Every structure is written in structure tokens, then in C-alpha cells.
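Hey, quick one: can you model this chain's 3D structure?
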Amino acid sequence: MKPIKVGLLGVGTVGAGTFNVLQRNQEEIRRRAGRGIEITMVAARNLDKARAVVGAGVEVTGDPFAVVNNPDIDIVVELIGGYELPRSLVLQAIANGKHVVTANKALLALHGNEIFAAAQDKGVTVAFEAAVAGGVPIIKALREGLTANRIASVAGIINGTTNFILSEMREKGLDFATVLKQAQELGYAEADPTFDIEGVDAAHKLTIMSAIAFGIPVQFDKAYIEGISQLQARDIRYAEQLGYRIKLLGITRRTQTESGEGIELRVHPTLIPASRLIANVEGAMNAVLVQADAVGASLYYGKGAGAEPTASSVIADLVDVTRLATVDPYCRVPHLAFQPNQMTDVAIVPMAEITTSYYLRVYVKDQLGVMADLTRILADAGISIDAVLQKEPGNQVNLDIIMLTHQTREKNIDAAIAKIETLPAVIGKVTRIRLETLS
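Sure thing. Here's the predicted structure for all 439 residues.
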């Protein structure tokens, strides 16, 4: 059987890794796929660099549309990143009847509904294992491995940059700005790290996983996003003393609200009990915890970025598409796990209606009656306290009062915080971090 011909868009870190792994393991891959998989054409901005990677036997062009419009190309691999250009290229490839493999989580989070609908109409596949958690096969697990289950929740450490920063802050007691600079020097963080540290990258990935887990459209615009740039080293230290670790967590789950069933879709710093496996995921590693009715809890762990870990997922998609290229489109695994006509539009729950526990740190003047005022305000809002810690952060005049609450609705904690911040003894804003037991 003749080899599948692949057009590669982008020969950066992941593109080069994909080409190199495919070349190195070509015989093993051919045995698994049932036929050869060859990259025969690539598009890149830096033509000399691309030629140095792929050698003389591969056509190199600066025009990515030349790849997607080439009638000899069977599968287009999109690894250039961004939004609008990749959207145009992917839609053109689909219109030309080509299968697509992409690692572009931002593209799918924003334009996935349009892209999947176009692919369905044309009878081609869009594969995207590498878009979430790098080399960790979480998409295949959610879409295929857990297909017998009703999934209850997905919670993940899905951004290696922020996990590295939080790990260093905890282990070395350093502040955020210092560790971010180190992360940039080590290559873990970009020169402009906004998407990572403000939670946007994690929200792109969570949006995709939520759609697959629950059979809903991708709805990035409805995700709640809060990053780690405002976290202080003392909050990480206090959390540790209380038996918790702080991670940037993406959480999506089925939940019941006053108006019926909804889906939570949120990214934010989260206290997790230190005894949980996911709380002990350190450095730039990723981990995703899935709760489902039949299998219970399952944890998926590994490298979430890097040339070869991500290339591993790209090539796995290439093998899957190669195996299924001649299969009736209606017999293939649906893009978002559920048949397109069986998707449901369950409402994304507003943050005000989320129910969880909270870590509150209140910086106060050391005077009589402060604790009584705080507990009264919380009690009036129907919020009970689980634990209290009092600390002197560097002087003998003021105090940090740290409280862990039992579960309550976010709107209740918002109202209580607003009243606490009006107390004469309270200095500045209340620090609020959500807490999840993940039990």
C-alpha cells in the first residue's frame, strides 16, 4: 500500500520534533499504521532552518497555502499556532478533502465548533491529541477509553509554566516575580508569559476537555479565568502549614444549581490537600484527574510540552488518521466523543453560583474584637469556618488571619468579603483562593 503523504505547517520546536521522531521510528510506526507515513512538503517562515531539519528530499515552501492546496497531500499537520491564519489554513485543507492534525489548542477553543462541523460535512477527520497536555494521551482517554462512563468531573494541572513557578515558590520561598524571571531564563516561560501565568492557555485546554467529557460545544468565552500573577509566597507557605498545596487548576464538572444541571468551567489557583497525588505533581509536569461513575478516579500524568513529548501525540494522531482514512466517516470516533446530533447545550454555570470551599487571608491591625467581627460577618452570610491560623508577617503590629471555610456559594463569599473589607481594622484587600478536596 502506498505511503500516506503529509504536509507539515511549521518547523519550530514541535514541527522539528515531529519530523525527527517520525524519521527515527519510521519502521515501528509503519508496522503500527499498516503503511508508511511520509512528510513530503513543509511550510516555514525560515526556509534555511526548515531545510536543515528536513533535508533535501522534502519540498520546502514559504507559502502554507501551497501545502493545503497540494493535491498529493493526504494529511495536513498544523503546528504554526495562533488564531486566524491557522483557521483559514485548516478550513481550506478540509474544503480540499484533507484530514488535519493540529496541536493548536487556542484555535480549537475559539473556532472548534466551526472546524468540526466543516470536517463532518466533508467526511474528514480533525485530530488534536497534542493540543492538550503534550504527550499525555488525555484526549484519547476521554473520547475513547472512558466511553462507557458518565464522566462527573475533570480537574487538571495543564500548564507546565505555572506549575514550575508554583513549585519553585513553594520549595524555595521565593516571590512570583523572581521565579518568573528564572522560568524565562530556563526557557519554561515565554518572553511574554501572559497566556500562561494568567490562565488563558489552561482555559483553552480545559474548554476542549469539557466539550469531550460532557458532549457540549466548545465555549471558551464562558470560561472563568484567573491566573497566578497575584499569588504571594506567604499564601503558599500558609497553605502548606494547613496541609494544602496551591496549584493552577482547570476544573470542569457536572453540577446542580438552583436552575437545574449545569457545567462548571473554571481555571484559577486552588488549594488541594497535600495528600492528593495531583497535589504532588511538581515542576513543568502535567496531570489530569478524571472522576467517572464506572471506573472511579483515574489520573493521567506526564510531560505537557517539549519537542518530542508533543511530537509523540502528533504522530499518534497521524497513525490513527492513517488507519481510518478509508473507513466510512460515520464509523469513525466523533471529534468530541459524542455523535454530532447528540450534542447538548447544557448551560455553563456562572462563578457566582459555584459551590466550593475557600481560603481567606485578612491582613488586620492587632486589636481586640477583630476575630469576632470576622466570624460574625461570615456567620451572617451562612458561612462556617473549618480552620483558623494567625500569623505575624514580619512585624509585631499587624496580623494575617487565615481562615478555611466549609463549602458555600461564591456569591455568599463575595458578599462577606465586601463587608470584611469595610472593617476599620482590616488593611487592604482580602486574599481569596478557592479550595477543592478532589475526593
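One thing worth noting: The chain has three domains: 4-127, 139-303, 354-435.
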